[in-house]
Amino acid sequence: MTSGNKSDKVNMKTLAAELKLSTATISKALRDSYDIGQETKQRVMEAARRLNYVPNVYASSLRRQSSNTIAIIIPEIADSFFSQAINGIESIIAPEKYHSLIYLTHDDYQREASMLSDLASGRVDGVIMSVASNTEDTSHIKTLQETGIPIVFFDRVCEDVNADKIITDDFNSAYIATSHLLQSGCKNISLITISGFPSILSAREQGYRKALADNGITIEETGIVTCSNKYNTENVGIIKEHLSTAMPDGIVATVEHLATSTYLACDELKLKIPDDVKVICFTNQITAAILNPPLTTILQPAYDMGKQAAEILFGRLSGRIITTEQELVMPSQLIARASTSSN
């Protein structure tokens, strides 16, 4: 970058890109933090002078003191995945003598944007988050980053935001799930999903499509059913209508609450699982093994994902990690149970 024009908007993110450092490191260097080396501080100050960086005095004054608090922003707490991820995060936060504030967006973009706006006041030192399903505009996230507060995504991430990301291989997991149903004898497999923009949804749909295509099965668009992202009886009705008209013999459910809706829909229609329709779901639900019948699941490493997200965040906060943002992919596991049995 060669810009020195004062009309250019130069912020901490600009300096971070120029020096290939994190915005958290830039922020600490500008504040002369003790845990940033003198050489790094000098590089940052030289770049700030060269690029005519003018600090946001108000934001800087708010960030002068560490709050020893981390924000955990998640769509919901009822989902087993998120509760297990929080346990993983807490396993790292507690020994560091930090506190956590848990924010529930209820899978709503407006609530998420409002929460991040509040956090820019300096209430927390860092953020670990999984975005709402209807988050498309990411300006609120980028604005928070510009204050120097590091953000680590897990599970539901924003592809256009430069931040550390902890994900699972959703494409491959959906491919494996669909292939499992094919191997169990299914020939008309439907994907039950929710509306939204997170990369996990598109990756799971693409994995489903690829598995069918690789097995020479024509992909019917009517085989993809979109439900609400909320827990409600409306989803049961949507799935009942699909089961009655498309008559699938296999279902891949992309999120946890759709497993419950699918089981209820089958029960109301007097369809037997797995005899009439086989079901597999992305879920960490601990009761999956005692459902009637026990549910075949794609099990994500939720605890380890939360733990890894917290470790990376503290690496950023301490300055131990000053490399460019990383994306860590952790494998999920198929747990076969009676809901997909071919017997």
From TrEMBL:
InterPro entries: HTH_LacI, LacI/GalR-like_sensor, Lambda_DNA-bd_dom_sf, Peripla_BP_I. Pfam families: LacI (PF00356), Peripla_BP_3 (PF13377). Keywords: DNA-binding, Transcription, Transcription regulation. Residues 10-64 form the HTH lacI-type domain. Transmembrane segments: none annotated. One of its GO terms (molecular function) is transcription cis-regulatory region binding. This is LacI family transcriptional regulator. It comes from Mucilaginibacter rubeus. The lineage of its organism: Bacteria, Pseudomonadati, Bacteroidota, Sphingobacteriia, Sphingobacteriales.
